[in-house]
Please model this.
Amino acid sequence: MTNDDPQFFSKLVQQQTPRYLWIGCADSRVPSTQLVDVLPGDMFVHRNVANLVIHTDFNCLSVMQYAIDVLKVEHIIVCGHYRCGGVQAAMQQQSFGLVDNWLRHIQDIISKHQRYLDTFATEKERLDKLCELNVIEQVLNVCENTLVRHAWQRGQKLSVHGWIYGVEDGLLRDLKLSINNTTEMNAAIHRLMAQTQTI
Model:
């Protein structure tokens, strides 16, 4: 970095001005800044098991508030990944202790979309689809949060996106879910329900 810009670190130490907030899984195989090839200072990052956005998680909410209200990020990216161990543990009802309480939120998604998931023939297909559904549900959780709603109400430029990473092929996939306001959020909810609840 200093070969291209000898003043890189001296400028970086002054302030951070990221355009992106990344909410991703804590899995060590999913290194956020390397996946999107950004420099230090370009992306604010929050990671947890299974990339969940829970309205009672003050850690995640604090990150979101700082990113939206102070850093003025323009994009929030929720990125999950296929073969997520947290999602798989919830799907198979495995028990690992304290994390079981956290993964209860994934089991709620399973219950909500069970009939749709049952249409897939293999466990791998169901797991892959559940990983995608989890990203979609977390995007909606972000959009339903008052921090995001208030930003939209005051006219702040803010888009929320859903992506998923394939650990088996290294490809980052756009789930074609980008939401810029409450109208688009409501439309996304209707599309999801139409897709998964009319089986």
About this structure: The domain at 15-197 is CATH 3.40.1050.10 (Beta-carbonic Anhydrase; Chain A). The chain has one domain: 15-197. The radius of gyration is 18 Å.
